[in-house]
Structures are given as structure tokens and as C-alpha cells.
Design goal:
Elements (H helix, E strand, L loop, with lengths): L1 H6 L16 H6 L12 E3 L8 E6 L17 E4 L2 E4 L3 E5 L4 E4 L5 E4 L18 H22 L5 E6 L1 H12 L6 E5 L13 H4 L3 E6 L7 H8 L1 H4 L5 E6 L7 H18 L8
């Protein structure tokens, strides 16, 4: 509860312990008093060192940003076998709106866009382009906000999983700035996502991770082929597939996030060992 309060816009309440490793108390007291907003971003704030990089991470279908607050170690680094927070790393965890899903007869659930079909993992589903563009505009606004704080988008990273991976790739490949890196796990590149002509020249790292036992996003039958034009673009694209990993495998997703962050962190020229 303390961690959730510090990462949302919760600003008051009773806590059995007031000091924890993510600075929940200071995060709560530093905000105006209000009741929690379930649609607000959750944020893992950097404490004890300057803010030098941001990861915006987009959850999957029917999930929330809050789900990742308890999985905060997804965004940690391995230091001599122990997981520790990156000094100066801010993680922004947006939550999708509740929306009616056409393929489910109008049932409402949290989703970045509306599905028009449900092929149950057998092939790519049709989607409503307007709802996708709405999600992309929202992501772009968050990237702009973080870039403004950091003096540019080079230390802003964008990642996501499953449906969130599709949104991330659409948003990153249409963003006006030069992001520091892109992570897509357990997802696919949408057929409708255009590739910019200068993608190879931009040199933006794109890292893709999938499990070979994933029946929701089956790699061999059709998901792999969605990335073929990205592979052929000449861009900085690396793809990793793991045996024995099913969809929504939390251990694998956390491992992939940490692998991505370790590489991106190593690219930061502003990192100082004194932190």
C-alpha cells in the first residue's frame, strides 16, 4: 500500500512504516492532497540522485500501470547478484482507459485500442485506428513531457508488453524526436504501423523479446513475420526469443526489461559512478 501510494497520486493515509527504499513518504507529502485517480499514471521516482533518464512502460490488454508497482524489480539492475534501483531512473507507468471492445460485444475493459475481431491468437486482429491514434497521441505527450525535463529525448526510453508492445512500436516509429531506445515484449508489429524512411539513419535501438511457447502471440506461426520489414529496414533491431516462455510470463518479462535497461544504461554518457 505504501508503495502504491507513493507511485500514484494518493496523498494521505496511515502507514505502519514511513521509510522505504522508493521514498513513498516524501512522494506522498510532495503532492497536493486528493483522492487516488485510478486512471492516473503510476511513477517510480528516482530518489537520492538526480533524474537522468526515464522509461515509459506500456502495459498489456486488461492490465494497468499499477500492476507494475508490485513488480518494481523489473526496472532494477543486477549488482553482484542483488537487484538494486538505477540511480536517477524514473519509470512512468500509464494506465489504459476503460473502453468497449467491439469483438467482445461491447464488453468494457482496460485497453489501449478497440479490437474489431478476436482470432484467439491465430492471426493479427483488426483494430479501430482512431482508438490506436488516441493512444499514440497520449504516449507522445508523455515522451514530450519527459524530454522537456531531461533536455531532450535521447535519455527517454519507451517500452511495453503484449498490446502495449504494439502501441509502443507505433508510437516510437511515428515520434518526431530521437528516443534513446525502444523495448517490445510479447507482442507484434501492427500491419498498419508505417516505418519512417530514415529509420536506419536515426540509429534508434529497437529490442524485441518473445517466448516460443506463447500461444497468444505465437512466434513461429505469424508474429515473427510481422517484424520482417523492420529487420530489412537496416535499423538497429535485435530480436531475442526464449524457449519455454509462455504469454504473461512475469519472470521472463522482468528479465527482458532488466536486459534492455542494462544495455540502455550503458549507452548513457551522463552516468557517473559517484551516484
Amino acid at each position: 500500500m505504501r508503495r502504491e501510494a507513493g507511485c500514484e497520486h494518493t496523498t494521505h493515509g496511515w502507514f505502519a512504516t514511513l521509510d522505504d527504499e522508493v521514498g513513498s513518504l516524501s512522494a506522498c507529502l510532495g503532492r497536493h492532497w486528493c483522492w487516488p485517480d485510478p486512471t492516473a499514471d503510476c511513477t517510480l521516482w528516482p530518489h537520492g540522485s538526480p533524474h537522468i533518464a526515464t522509461l515509459v512502460y506500456i502495459h498489456g490488454f486488461q492490465a494497468t500501470g499499477l500492476d507494475y508497482v508490485q513488480g518494481y524489480q523489473y526496472f532494477y539492475r543486477d549488482v553482484d547478484g542483488a537487484l538494486e534501483p538505477y540511480p536517477g531512473l524514473k519509470v512512468v507507468l500509464p494506465t489504459a482507459p476503460l473502453r468497449s471492445i467491439t469483438a467482445w460485444g461491447g464488453k468494457r475493459t482496460r485497453s489501449w485500442y478497440d479490437y474489431l475481431t478476436d482470432h484467439d491468437g491465430k492471426q493479427e486482429d483488426d483494430l479501430d485506428p482512431e482508438s490506436l491514434e488516441e493512444a499514440v497521441r497520449r504516449v507522445h505527450a508523455k515522451l514530450d513531457a519527459e524530454a522537456a525535463l531531461l533536455g531532450g529525448p535521447e535519455a527517454v526510453w519507451l517500452g511495453g508488453t503484449s498490446q502495449g508492445a504494439a502501441v509502443v512500436l507505433q508510437a516510437a516509429l511515428s515520434y518526431h524526436g530521437q528516443l534513446g531506445g525502444v523495448l517490445a515484449t510479447q507482442g507484434h508489429l501492427l500491419t498498419s504501423t508505417p516505418l519512417p524512411a530514415n529509420l536506419a539513419e536515426k540509429g534508434m535501438p529497437v529490442r524485441i523479446f518473445n517466448g516460443l511457447d506463447d500461444e497468444t502471440m505465437p512466434w513461429k506461426s505469424w508474429v515473427s513475420s510481422t517484424f520482417e520489414r523492420l529487420r530489412k529496414s537496416g535499423a538497429d533491431v535485435k530480436i531475442c526469443v526464449d524457449e519455454g516462455v509462455e504469454h504473461s510470463d512475469e519472470e521472463a518479462e522482468g528479465r527482458w526489461c532488466r536486459t534492455f535497461l542494462a544495455e540502455m544504461w550503458g549507452r548513457l554518457g551522463s552516468f557517473d559512478d559517484e551516484y
